[in-house]
Design a protein that fits this description.
Layout: E1 20-25, E2 31-38, E3 41-42, E4 57-58, E5 61-64, E6 76-77, H1 80-102, H2 107-115, H3 130-133
Length: 148
């Protein structure tokens, strides 16, 4: 995955257009707040309002909380929407790999498994399923760490 990672982007960053937050847990119960921030810009470095016709776009994003805090991932696309879509897809792959590598616990997965065992939890419209696998309520642990 290192080929997708840059420590510092060689192009100016625009404004953050969205921010996703959720919490994952280490086996010890320590919470890790994860934040994903996409920042679309044109390949020529123009911010979206100044981008010209025919520009290609990057949608670099950062992910904090998984040991990747100083890195930017710079997917691109033929327009800003495709760049954003590629960024969302790549972010999911990066997050899923980090969850496996760090052996983190996703409390929402446990709740869904108890409710509907063995079901693949995806959005039927085809959106990247990682958006639905990780809870957008960042401090919800669903009672995972309660005695009982």
């Amino acid at each position: 995955m290192a080929e997708y990672v840059k420590e510092k982007p060689a192009f100016p960053l625009g404004e953050i257009v969205a921010k996703g937050r959720f919490t994952l847990y280490e086996k010890s119960g320590r919470a890790r707040q994860v934040i994903v921030k996409p920042i679309p810009v044109s390949l020529q470095g123009a911010h979206l309002p100044e981008a010209g016709e025919g520009d290609h776009f990057r949608c670099p994003f950062s992910i904090t909380g998984l040991g990747l805090d100083s890195r930017f991932f710079p997917p691109s696309g033929e327009d800003s929407l495709m760049a954003l879509r590629h960024a969302i897809g790549l972010a999911g792959r990066v997050i899923d790999e980090a969850v496996r590598r760090l052996n983190l616990i996703n409390p929402l997965h446990g709740v869904r498994e108890r409710h509907d065992p063995g079901s693949k939890h995806v959005d039927v419209t085809g959106y990247p399923d990682w958006l639905y696998r990780y809870d957008s309520r960042p401090d919800t642990d669903y009672g995972l760490w309660k005695d009982g």
